[in-house]
Design goal:
It is a single chain. This protein is mainly beta. It has one domain (32-544, 551-594, 612-685): Beta Barrel (Maltoporin, Chain A), CATH 2.40.170. Helix content is 4%, strand content 54%. The chain is built from 4 helices and 40 strands. The longest helix has 9 residues, at 12-20. The chain is globular, with a radius of gyration of 25 Å.
Length: 687
Amino acid sequence: MRLPIDAPRLPAAWLAGLLAAAPAFGALPDEVIVTATGFPDPSLDVAGNTSRIGPDRIDLLNAAHVYELGTQLPGTWLSRGSGQEHLTAIRSPVLTGPGSCGSFLFLEDSVALRPAGFCNVNELFEVPAEQADAIEVIRGPANALYGSNAVHGTINVLLPTPGAQPGWLASGQVGPNDFYRARLRWDSGPGDDAVVAGLVYDHDGGFRDDSGYRQVKGFAKYRKRIATGDLEFAFSGTGLDQETAGFVIGEDAYRDDALRTTNPNPESYRDANSQRVYARFTPADNTSAAGWNAVATLRRSRMDFLQHFLPGQPTEDNGQESAALTLTRYRDAGALRLTGGLDLEVARGFLEEFQSQPETGTPPRPPGLHYDYSAHQYLAATYLQANWTLTPQWELSGGVRLEYLLYDYDNRMIAGNTRADGTPCTPACLFNRPADRSDGFLNLAPNVGLLYRLSERSSAYLTLTRGFRAPQAAELYRLQSRQGVADLDSETIDSAELGWRYQSSWARLGIAAFAMEKRNYILQDSNRFNVSDGRSDHAGIELDLLLQAGNGLYAAVAGTWARQVYDFTTRIPGGEVITSGNDIDTAPRTLGSARVGWSGDRWLAEAEWLHQGRYFLTAEESVDYPGHDLLNLRGSWRATDAWSVTLRLNNALDERYADRADFAFGDYRYFPGRDRELFFEVSYRSE
């Protein structure tokens, strides 16, 4: 079979020897996942995909940036920006603009990080993933358990359970450009009262001028057993103080040693903090056959940053406070398992955008306030998900979710398309501010799946799922001059997926093919003009493979081929021409990683290859980024039962590449990738 011209060059030689040695393999436990169904289920029994990064992998990577975790998964690209910034792509292009973050659902212990209408495109820097016990990712829309924003994918960061790993874990890591990290975690051990807590502190001087950051992340959980059940209280919080580097400008500027470490926007910054508290109650009389639980959540976030990527460089100040309650009821009658629930959420968010520089751009971007509004959000949803065992081999699943979201919007400045002082713009200014209003969105999302157990070691599945999201507050009320609030509707995506899994003592293999149609979404062209009624098609195939031998040799591959295209044709006034059938910009057709390693009683050595294919930078397919391949090396040595040392050499061949390429306002723009970097870590774990 002839591969596509930009298909990843998988290092087949790495795997051939392992496959030949298959009889010697024997170390992998059965994989158990929780996000897809809400229960700890063997992955072979789940109709649909879920990828999982376990604690050993998280500790080995000790990722300085969340994108390093994304490379471990098929169909996933957590595009690295400056500092801790990132953009998410899961079975999607890299999405930008007001609602790009709303296409993904980010969870912490299965609780949403933010309210449905107030997402953050950099939302993953608001969760202490460095301390996670596991990270699970559902690619494509989720089932009825998850509602608005679970469109292209769901990421669930599972923090440690109180009492599971008693003792201390402490580590210190240093790297180039004045990078250092301290991690600390303590677990009281099992008992009726159990506590686990963790803290991470990072400092990075930045490999580009004026681009350092400091961040702190922490969490704490307390579990108490009482006569009526288990109570768990949890807190997590983050703080980021970042000096941000802007794009380097000019064709192939990321290759230029004189440009790649410069910062055209030394004045740029990002300050952000977040806090979440939840209480979870599980009754004592719950059984595997029937029960219920309740989770109450309080959340807060604030962010202030300079929009260096826009003409005029306005500052944005935004924040939200929210409360949520989730009630879940389940019943297992042998052949039929039912899970139903009620989600309630109330939130208040605000946004201010202010430009101090003189008027610039076409359409004009005048100085002064551009937006100043607040909005209350009210959400209520109910759902039912069922799994019906038809025969010992066949299982049918299905569900439906009904969700209503209401906004009550308050414009705190003059409405319409004017300057901040009310004077008209000639020609029209970029900004359109709606008058006070309320907007409601009702969505119904069904799903159905069929699972067939081919054998004790393998299963196949077919799923049909609808995902949705109501417009984000910023999409509704931070309009551009050519948009009207009445133009906006809920985004929907319809997905069909066919998959096969195999699992044995020496191998885990998953293959999934998908096709999705997305409707009614807001997109931005390369000049950041909004389109309110976008349509797109997405199709691809994904491979997730892990092999492990009894002699310590292991290998893994996460590979993706996908085609993501526009499904409409339009000319954007002042912007681009979008043509149906063209590739969506920033959507590489191929993504992949492969690693091979050898682990002994006290040591580990690993080589990892990362591949990113070519992608277009404009909707017109006029310019592109050629893609890149990188090599990472890792090694660890456990000197004693308590002490260990780890070395990580990223970009070992010192390739010149771009973390993200862009083309806007007539210029190539890049976030240059980092040079070769060596990190050294010492860690201590008490027994």
